[in-house]
Amino acid sequence: MLLYAAIFCILGFEAFFRPMPTLSFVVGSMLIAPLLFPVSLYLSIIAIGNARSIRKLTRSLREGGRINHKADWKRFYRTRMISMAILLGIMAPLAIGLPIAAMALERTEELPLENNDLSLVRLVDIEKDPLLERVDGSRLPSGVDWSNSVSSGWSPYALDMTIVREQGVIPGRKWVDGNGEYSPGIICSIYKLRFSRLADGVLNDLLQFHEHEWGRGSILEITDNKGFDRLYISHEQSRLEVLASKGNTVIWLQYIGEEDAQSVVEAIYLKIAG
Question: Cα–Cα distance between 151 and 109 in angstroms, integer?
Fold first, then answer.
């Protein structure tokens, strides 16, 4: 019984008390948590059955009954062990295989120069100046330019998880404060979830993370949300962050530049609504 209680306590803690539970469920350490519930449920049913049998036997002995030493307990025991072996035989490969698959399917590639059919906001979608050029950044051991890269991941609970990083420069233009050449950049993450009911949880977890990063109260909810289900904006000097959801899709975007917030939000909506 202590083992069963411990399993449920661990699951309860993972599901309700750890930071960012939904995001961890989709992309993190709780990826295999749903697989533990059938095992825990089966063990609990066995524990309840054992407790009822012991109570029934105790009552019978108190009333003067005798123990049936000829009861076929071996068949009952074998049935339970076989069913447990089948259950674990199904769940164990999945519990091992899902994290391995998630790691194996992670990809980071160099972002193509052309604005292709990526369902993410590109820098050119915000910066309309035709003189915009790419700026090379530090390269990974694989040779990929990290500052201009696209990373994709896999999860059984998401149809698409992609992050785009892009850095540019407009020759001859300076920042409004005159401090160097104007070099805008974006980081854009998208989560297209398999179940739309996960969207609020993922957005809440991202909101919690970025409130902790930039300070509570720095992110404002936009009630006139331009067709989004939920929309949050944080704007500080040349840094703009937008967190939005619509249907089963959640987008977080960080933009460093001088374009206005409305242009950024409109660029996001064109992607998230399409």
Answer: 6
Phi and psi at 270, nearest 5°, equal -60, -35
Q: What is the DSSP letter of 180?
A: S
Q: What is the pTM of this model?
A: 0.74
Cβ density class 167-180: b for 16+ within 10 Å, e for less = bbbbeeeeeeeeee
Q: Which pair of structure tokens corresponds to residue 191?
A: 């989560």
Nearest to 158 by CA among 190, 206, 203: 190
Distance between CA atoms of residues 95 and 90, nearest Å:
9
Tokens found for residue 240: 């703009």
Yes or no: say if 33 and 24 are a contact pair by the CB < 8 Å rule. no
Token pair belonging to 178: 């005159």
173: left (phi over 0), alpha (psi -120 to 50) or beta: beta
What residue ranges in the chain does DSSP mark as E strands?
Answer: 107-110, 133-134, 149-155, 158-169, 185-193, 220-221, 230-236, 239-246, 249-256
CA distance 160 to 193: 7
Nearby residues of 150 by Cβ (< 8 Å), 6 or more positions away: 108, 109, 110, 111, 118, 120, 162, 163, 164, 165
| Percentage above 90 pLDDT, the chain | 22
Domains of the chain, with CATH numbers? 2-104 (no CATH), 107-272 (3.40.1000)
End-to-end C-alpha distance for the chain, whole angstroms: 52
Confidence class for position 5, pLDDT limits 50, 70, 90:
very low
pLDDT in tens, 94-138: 777 777 777 777 888 888 887 666 677 889 889 988 899 998 888
Query: How many whole angstroms separate alpha carbon 198 and alpha carbon 17?
Result: 17
